[in-house]
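thought: fold this chain, then report.
action: predict
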Amino acid sequence: MTQNKLKTVLKLYRGVIGILVTLLFLFMANAPVYSEETKPNQKLFTVAAFGPDGRLWRVNPAQDSVAVDYSLDYGKTFSKPLRINTKPQAINSWNENPPSLSVDKQGRVYVLYFADDKQDYTTFFSKSEDGGHFSEPVKVSSKADASVHYQTEMLIDSQGKAHFLWHDDRDATEYKKTGGGDLSIYYVATEFSNTHSFPPDHRIAKNICSCCRSAMAMDVDGRPVVLARFVYPGNIRDHGMFKLAADGTAGEPWRVTYDDWKIEGCPTHGPALSISDDGRYHITWFSQGKAQSGLFYAVSSDQGKTFSKPLKLGDGSKLPGRADVMALGKQLAVVWKEFDGVKTRVQAIHSEDNGSHWSAPTTVADTSSASAHPALINDGKRLFLSWNSADKGFQLIQID
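observation:
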């Protein structure tokens, strides 16, 4: 896929989402529509994370700015927002391309967001020692001004090192010659002290499905593991996995789902990955494949080489999708969306024994308006749903 074609696809996707948001506001929430939006309300993509002191941090994107605030009472009240970008930018998030927020063990705050610059969806990064002052945002990709890149994932390890990976089209000419997927995954890592620039980034995977967000989690040995939707021969869009070495290089990825979803297009439905303290890999994914179709969860006890029989999630008549999974000690939770034609509901299942037994699915939140994907976060003791909708705003809901 050429750069111009990719830009066109992404802009069409963004435009469709904007139209849907407008319609949902008008017909579902009975909210007046004053103007047509070319992209969704950026506030839908507010993200949250807990710090080591129990403080709940948020990144609040607006149309031309990104701000950070925090709560000392589990989201009941929040501090005055602190703006990160001093100059206005065209902030550009969407459901498969949300901002990221991490807080390390020392209470240092890391923020990643997307804005239109010389290229659309450019990734910007900022950080703070304590959330009181943030560094000037810098671009993450070394080719940020020349190549389309987006869906950046950020992961902070136990040493405070920040790991980034993203989808990048700089190898489009190579793929045009050889066939295969549309994009590559590029990677870079940096120490907290590196404020103004990043080390050279490099490719860690190719033949990636262009619009499905990849997932990254830290293994028990401190090395990142990546789960992504690959394009296999015949336009089969299933999932593969790979692990990074200590020097940031990656070996050949191996396939982990065999749904045989053949589609000449973008599913725009990325997977989720969480690794528990005992080294088990927990994954969720969506497929409309010939072999199986639906939303699924599976677990691996051998570092992703083999997975359990997939557990099908949700009511198939209510369009289940957008699942997230998180492990915390022996606790494990999965959340996902369902839509019955009137309301979108977030469903959840919870396990106290690392997935050996599951609770029955329960509805933990709902909306009649536009909403972001559900996300799971934790405070070190409990698991929470972090979710945003146009009618109810930000919600933090304990999963139990």
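thought: worth noting. The first strand starts at residue 47 and ends at 50.
final: tokens above.
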